[in-house]
Specification:
660 residues, alpha+beta, 17 helices, 13% strand, flat, disordered C terminus
Length: 660
């Protein structure tokens, strides 16, 4: 940041800049005023201020008002993974050292000077290593991580949050700070800003209010020319930023000036600070944004609170009604004959408050003959099922509206009985429903990384001209949510794979646990896997191929059985044909014999023909029997061969313990 105070004509500039800021703020308020009102209401609602005067009117006075704040549960389901594993940014060289040197020489030879976008001088990799060292120290600072987490939380809950980068002086040394803007409604946004993180903006400002007395101590007695806070020129610049009584507005205003960014700090009637960030690509205030929505023909933002507000109120109403039912429920009582209680009234009245398990009662009536039944304790029943059902339905509607289970981005309830397909589809749905928050935050942090890297180069005198490096953002919470997604998928697959594959799934499941010693535990489970699952363990595709091969063998065996049946049918038909032929042959023989008897009466000739016919009959019968035996043997040989092939190719089923 270079000071240019000597270039400013303060007398003519102050009024012009103050008027410029007021006009800018009024335009921003016109566009974002209603949105900021919604943000303030959403913040109160998330904090638990969920009852108002309308509720008293609708429900009546002196009614129970119970708040079971589930909003923060859904917000934290998205924010916690981000906070536990934040995004990190670093610089990477746009040119390798070798490419830089070759292209530099080539440019000098051809053009007599380097290419316009080419860095000049310095060892790129060494300078980038120094830059990354500064960036790493800043990101390891608690304030930096907390600023990102709080800005992300604001975007998830209300739709927008902010952080900013600046150079401050601490104990005489200039340092870079990255901080969160606590009240996002105190940022004056450019109505024409574009981009996921509103980074394509020409102006932006931050408003603060300071007691007039303190402002004079900090910035000088003449900070307000009229010596009255209410008459300061920097007032009345939008309902979103109304100046409280006895306070003055302190506005830090940034605007683009060519390739530079100017900043002005205004208080009352004065410019109390001024500077320039030379060559800064983006304004140094960074917006974390949620869902982009259209409201009253204006494109603004929305968070989770706005989505679940109605269902949250239903939960509160139902829980309040439940409390009232419990408060109005009668005490338990003893039911019996009056004579049973006579003389023991005090004992029965104090029965539920005492510690004794014995309660005396009269067992005999006054006539000394009738035996009285013992008094029975009656516990009044309180109906709650209807209200509990409403509460459960409301929570389910909140999950549907946000796409988030109250248990987290990926539901961890292992007792929830759903099919594997439902689990996988639900996981993808949840990931896509929250991915906009995470992807927007990732882009915001990349932009912040660009600004902070530029400030580091300016502050520490690094030889890294613009264009010599790029800022990249590492996975951060994306890897954590990916692990959760993988875990859910593995649990789903465990329901459908054979038992022989479950030890392998258990070993893979451990890899998805973000726990200390997880890798060692995974290695131990791997070593305990069967030999066929270690090293060259079959993949799921290979396992499916084996299953298909088994199905083919079973089909072949079925075909062989069908062929065997066909052969048996053919044999039966052949036997039927043979019997028919024999009958026909007998008929012909009888006809021939009768004919011979008519033609020749010699008995010897007839006997000879009978002998010949009988011999022929035996020959045919023997041939049929041999054919039948041969076909039966062939069928047995075929079945035995197919069964042998099926056993050799069938996988060996083994039972292994599943890691819990």
């Amino acid at each position: 940041m270079n000071e240019r105070e000597e270039e400013l004509d303060w007398a003519s500039t102050e009024d012009g800049i103050i008027d410029e800021v007021k006009d800018f703020a009024k335009a921003s308020n016109e566009f974002y005023g209603d949105f900021y009102k919604r943000v303030k209401n959403d913040r109160k609602f998330e904090a638990g201020e969920q009852w108002d005067d309308k509720d008293k009117t609708n429900r009546g006075e002196n009614r129970a008002q119970v708040t079971i704040n589930l909003c923060s549960v859904f917000v934290n389901a998205v924010v916690n993974p981000f906070s536990s594993r934040p995004f990190k940014f670093k610089a990477v060289p746009r040119w390798s050292q070798e490419t830089y040197e070759n292209n530099y020489v080539k440019a000098i030879v051809e053009n007599g000077k380097p290419y316009p976008d080419m860095p000049q001088g310095g060892l790129i990799n060494e300078e980038i290593a120094k830059l990354n060292d500064h960036l790493s120290k800043l990101q390891n600072d608690f304030c930096t991580n907390e600023s990102n987490a709080m800005g992300f939380h604001d975007s998830v809950s209300t739709g927008i949050g902010f952080s900013y980068a600046t150079i401050d002086e601490v104990m005489g040394e200039k340092v870079i700070k990255y901080l969160h803007i606590e009240d996002q409604t105190m940022v004056i946004l450019d109505p024409d800003a574009k981009g996921v993180a509103l980074q394509e903006a020409d102006r932006i400002a931050v408003v603060d209010f300071m007691l007039y007395k303190k402002a004079k101590e900090v910035y000088g007695e003449d900070v307000v020319r009229s010596n009255k806070a209410e008459k300061a020129r920097l007032t009345d610049f939008g309902k979103s930023w109304e100046v409280p009584k006895d306070h003055v507005a302190v506005v830090t205003y940034y605007r683009r000036d060519g390739h530079d960014v100017e900043y002005f700090r205004l208080c009352g009637d004065s410019i109390v600070d001024y500077g320039v960030f030379e060559g800064l690509e983006y304004l140094p205030i960074f917006a974390f944004t949620g869902d982009r929505v259209w409201v009253k023909d204006k494109r603004t933002f929305s968070g989770i609170i706005r989505k679940v507000m109605s269902e949250q109120l239903i939960v509160n109403y139902s829980q309040s009604q439940l409390i009232e039912r419990l408060a109005k429920s009668p005490k338990g009582f003893f039911l019996g004959y009056t004579e049973s209680f006579e003389g023991n009234e005090e004992c029965f009245q104090n029965a539920e408050f005492g510690t004794s398990q014995v309660v005396e009662a009269n067992w005999q009536a006054s006539d000394k003959k009738t035996v009285l039944p013992l008094p029975q304790f009656v516990e009044p029943k309180i109906v709650t099922a209807d209200l509990q059902s409403i509460i459960d339905q409301s929570i389910n509607q909140m999950s549907v509206a946000t796409g988030i289970s109250p248990n987290g981005i990926v539901e961890q309830n292992l007792t929830d009985q759903k099919t594997a397909t439902e689990v996988l589809l639900r996981t993808k749905s949840s990931q896509s429903n929250v991915s906009n928050y995470i992807s927007h935050a990732k882009e915001t942090i990349r932009i912040a990384g660009n600004v902070i890297a530029h400030l580091c180069i300016m502050l520490y005198g690094l030889d890294l001209p613009k264009g010599s490096y790029d800022i990249v953002v590492e996975e951060g919470c994306v890897s954590l949510t990916k692990m959760e997604e993988d875990r859910e998928k593995l649990l789903a697959l465990a329901q459908i794979v054979p038992d022989s594959f479950k030890p392998l799934i258990s070993q893979r499941l451990v890899r998805t646990l973000d726990i200390e010693g997880g890798q060692e535990l995974s290695d131990m489970l791997y070593n305990m896997l069967p030999a066929e699952l270690r090293g060259g363990a079959p993949s799921w595709q290979e396992f499916q191929a084996q299953q298909m091969q088994m199905q083919e063998l079973q089909q072949q065996l079925l075909q062989a059985q069908q062929q065997n049946k066909q052969l048996n049918d053919q044999l039966t038909q052949a036997q039927l044909r043979t019997q028919t032929d024999l009958i026909m042959e007998d008929k012909r023989f009888e006809h021939d014999v009768q004919k011979m008897l008519i033609q020749n009466s010699e008995k010897e000739k007839v006997d000879a023909q009978k002998v010949l016919l009988e011999a022929k009959r035996e020959q045919v019968a023997n041939e049929q029997e041999m054919k039948k035996i041969a076909m039966e043997n062939q069928t047995k040989i075929t079945e035995k061969a197919l069964n042998t092939v099926a056993k050799e190719n069938a996988p060996q089923e083994k039972q292994y313990p599943i890691f819990p």
